[in-house]
Amino acid sequence: MNDIKLGDLANEIGDYRFANYLYARALKKEALVTEELKEKFDETEKLKWDGKSILSFDGWKLSKSSYVKGNQCLKYLYLDKYKKKERTPVDEETQARFDRGHTFEDIVRDKQFPGGINIKDKVGNFGYFNSYTKYLLNQPIEMTLYEATIIEDEVLVMCDVLVKTEDGFIDIYEIKSSTKTNIAISNDLKLQYAICEKRFKDKLRSFNLILRVEDEEPKWVIENRT
Known about the structure:
Layout: H1 2-13, H2 16-27, H3 35-47, E1 62-63, H4 64-72, H5 74-82, H6 92-112, E2 117-118, H7 119-123, H8 129-137, E3 143-152, E4 155-164, E5 170-176, H9 183-200, E6 204-213, E7 219-224
Parallel strand pairs: 1-4, 2-3, 5-6
Antiparallel strand pairs: 3-4, 4-5, 6-7
C-alpha cells in the first residue's frame, strides 16, 4: 500500500515517471492488483517522459530525536544507529507522556495554525519527506506545513509547524507540552535552529517555542527564540 500511496502523490504533483515505477512495483504484488491500479499504471506510462523528477529518497545519519536522546545516554545513540532491536522498549508511563505531548501538539495546530499540510501523513515514507517539503516550499504561495522535514549535513529534523509567507519568509514553531524548558528541550532547539538556519539562511524570519501553560483548559505561550 505504501507504493500506491507514494505513487498517487507523485502522480498528483507531476512526477509521472516515479509514479509509474511505484505502480509497476505494486502490480508485482498480487494482493494489491486492482483494475484501478492498472489504469493508474497505464496513464502514467503514457506521461512518464513528460513530467518532472521531484521526489527522491534522501538519507541521513542522525535525526534530532536520536541526537537529543544520545545526549542523555550514549548507549541509546549507539543502539539506535547499529542495533535498534536491542533498545529498551518504551514503558507505559513514558508512552503515556508521549501521547499527551502529541495530543497537545494537535490541539495547538488545530487552533493556532489550522489547515496545514501534514508531510508525514501525505507521504508515508520518511525517505521522501525532505524532497516533498522542498517541492512545497518552492511553490510561490503562502502555506502552513506540519512535520516539514529538513536534511542538512546528513542530519534530519522535522518542524512541528512551518509557516511560509508569500514572499518566501519562514516562521518555525516547535511545540512542547512542558511548561518550562529543560536540558533536553534546549538541546532539541539548538540542533533544530542550526539546521533550519543552514537551510533557509536570511529567509528564516523567526524560530519559536510553544510551551503549555498550566491550566485546566489547553493554553500555551509562544516565545520567539530567534
